[in-house]
Amino acid sequence: MRILVVWAHPLADSYSAALKDRAEGALQEAGHEIDLLDLYAEAFDPVLSAQERRDYHEIGPNLRNVQSYVDRLRAAEGLLLVFPTWSFGYPAILTGWLQRVWIPGVAFGLREEGGPIIPGILGIRRVAAITTTGSPWWYVKAVGNPAKKVLKRGHRVMFAKGCRVKWLDLNNMNKDSPRKRTRFLAKVERTLPNFFNR
Asked: Which residues of the chain have pLDDT under 70?
């Protein structure tokens, strides 16, 4: 399976980087083809410009500044997002990638009469997210885990019918132990190949 791995963290020596590296290695070892999109290293601009907003609904012109990213998304059969949860959501750079690249004619279509969107990323059959939070699990649950809901309830409808979504999170990052982090790395390494091989 060709998997687009989207990583959103500014520090190459972070625990998030270790998660990305472990996931990428495990998936390659399982025979998957990896396309790594490091949003910070590629200096992705998350800001939707005034012109992009004007062109947003015009299929063709709306691709002008993001065609290379759209091509990578369309080539993928699997998607893996690796990011820290900040303010209970995606980092700004990842939100910007979603808003500038997952546009009409790419990720979804709009119906003239209104109503539900028309799915557009039909090549993607498996989606997984690996994230960390500073808050304990019970507090993330109490606020409704917004990032998880966006992926599993909102974005999921854009993918192939029957697409499966996996959410792996390590909570309480501000208080956890090296042992807990090591165990989570092992869980990522163990879980992802089986999930994407199905």
From this structure: none
Q: How far apart are CA 185 and CA 23, in angstroms?
A: 8
Give, to the nearest 10 degrees, the angle between helix 92-101 and helix 67-75: 90
Q: Which tokens belong to 38?
A: 């490091």
Burial label, 157 (beta-carbon count in 10 A; 0-12, 13-18, 19+): middle
pLDDT tens for residues 109-135? Answer: 999 888 899 999 999 999 999 999 999
Determine the Cα–Cα distance for residues 99 and 47; give it in Å rounded to an integer: 9
Is the sign of the CA dihedral 37, 42, 43, 49 positive or negative?
A: negative
Identify the burial level of 166 via C-beta atoms within 10 angstroms of its C-beta, where 0-12 means exposed, 13-18 middle and 19 or more buried: middle
Rounded CA gap, 117 and 107, in Å? 10
Could you tell me the CA-to-CA distances from 94 to 79, 148, 197 in Å, in that order? 13, 14, 26
What's the Cα-to-Cα distance from 126 to each of 4, 93, 142, rounded to whole Å?
11, 22, 27
**How deeply is 67 buried, as exposed, middle or buried, from its count of CB atoms within 10 A (0-12, 13-18, 19+)?**
exposed
Q: Quick one: tokens of 175?
A: 């208080």
Distance CA 80, CA 6 (A): 6
Helix (H, G, I), strand (E, B) or coil at 73: helix
